């Protein structure tokens, strides 16, 4: 697997999932989320492990022989979606600050609906779409990306 291949990272408590277009995109996101511990997977459900360069930076992701079952991957993503919905419910319960905040929460909630009943492969394709992922140069694609990838649903 070369460093230009996309992959996802799911944090260990399974609160967030982030789609990475490349290793460069992952390195850029670490500036925004330092200290996160993630499991990495490709679109075929194989676990990935980082390979480092001489300076200690992630140079590429290496596919391992560990392939998770559809059920295991779905359980991880179901937990992320469930936690995202709970965060949105919590935001509404705490009181929405303004119309823009309410609109962002509604957008995030609607985006989560796309994951209902979808297979892992379908979810992976969804995560690759621009509304769910983010370009390397602009690390903010909106409410649904922020909710799934960063745990803040606005």
Give a quick precis of the structure:
This protein has 154 residues and is α+β, with helices and mostly antiparallel strands.
Q: Kindly state the number of beta strands.
A: 5
Largest sheet: 5 strands, antiparallel
Q: What share of residues is helical?
A: 40-55%
The residue ranges in which pLDDT falls below 50 over 5 or more consecutive positions are none
Oligomer: single chain
Write up what this structure looks like.
The protein is an alpha+beta fold and 154 residues long. The protein has one domain (7-150). 44% of the residues lie in helices and 19% in strands. The chain contains 5 helices and 5 strands, in the order ββαβββαααα. It has helices at residues 23-32, 70-94, 99-113, 120-128, 143-150, and strands at residues 7-11, 17-20, 38-41, 46-52, 58-67. The chain has a 5-stranded antiparallel beta sheet with strand order 2-1-3-4-5, with helices on both faces. A hairpin with a 5-residue loop joins strand 1 (7-11) and strand 2. The protein starts with 6 loop residues before the first strand and ends with a helix. The mean pLDDT is 84.
């Amino acid at each position: 697997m070369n460093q230009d291949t996309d992959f996802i990272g799911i944090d260990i408590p399974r609160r967030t999932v982030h789609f990475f277009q490349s290793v460069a995109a992952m390195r850029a996101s670490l500036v925004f989320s330092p200290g996160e511990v993630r499991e990495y997977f490709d679109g075929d459900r194989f676990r990935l492990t980082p390979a480092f360069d001489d300076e200690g930076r992630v140079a590429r992701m290496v596919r391992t022989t560990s392939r998770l079952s559809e059920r295991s991957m779905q359980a991880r993503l179901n937990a992320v979606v469930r936690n995202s919905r709970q965060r949105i419910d919590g935001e509404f319960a705490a009181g929405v600050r303004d119309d823009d905040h309410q609109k962002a929460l509604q957008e995030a909630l609607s985006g989560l609906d796309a994951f209902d009943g979808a297979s892992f492969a379908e979810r992976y394709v969804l995560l690759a779409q621009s509304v769910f992922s983010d370009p390397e140069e602009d690390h903010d694609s909106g409410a649904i990306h922020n909710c799934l990838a960063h745990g803040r649903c606005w």
